[in-house]
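Issue: ligand-bound run for IPE - logging full I/O for the record.

Environment: standard queue, default settings, no custom constraints.

Inputs:
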Amino acid sequence: MNKESKNIPDHVGIIMDGNGRWATKRGLSRSLGHLEGSKTLEKTGIHILKKGVKILSVFAFSTENFKRSEEEVTYLMNLFIDMFTKKCKEFKKNNVKVIFSGRKSPLRSDVLDAMDKLVEDTKNNTKGILNICLNYGGQEELIDASKKIAIDYQNGKLDLDTLNKESFAKYLYNDLPPIDLLIRTSGEYRISNFMLYQMAYSEMTFPDTLFPDFTPKEFDIALEEYQKRNRRFGGV
Ligand code: IPE
Ligand code: IPE
Ligand code: MG
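Outputs:
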């Protein structure tokens, strides 16, 4: 095994941005950009997990995305149902466990049912985890964790002196290791409320590619860049 293939990040995050611009550039509706983006996720997601990445967290829909037109939000929700019931076959076939991060409310019950079914169908899979952040906000995750902590404290289930980085993480939507590599497509240089707690020391790359055009090859380029970085975590 060469040096490159050993230094694989355990946890990769992708802010899948640029679907709307991809479609608009082609004179298509934004919705068709989302459809194309969903195909990209399937192709590149499998590739990334096959590379040895243990957890892939993807930003599918932010709490703020509810500000979009009703037409776009409805299209996205229906696309999620379609993906979770049919198109996630590839993830199932490849032994990938699917989990979700985010708030349930105000998601539609048919969306929640499709999410629950996919989680149930893949819960015993062992070749990597796909964490889909849907109706997800990083600040919301910290607020929700703080509320759970307050309740446990009130009920005498938590000794505040024991609270540390590891035990705090157990109150998040999912207890996941830190994100090692974060990729945001579409040339925007911001985090947009993605996994704030998990990204404290992430390496980041910002390819210009719009998400529907993102390919396994482009992931490999980001990975190579990651492998060249000198992670210091505050040390020297
Ligand atoms: C990302 O693509 C997908 C979602 C936010 C659901 P966008 O829809 O944000 O695409 P742009 O940024 O408008 O091009
Ligand atoms: C972030 O993209 C959310 C997702 C990719 C799901 P946005 O397009 O919503 O972010 P901003 O508005 O450009 O910051
Ligand atoms: Mg965007």
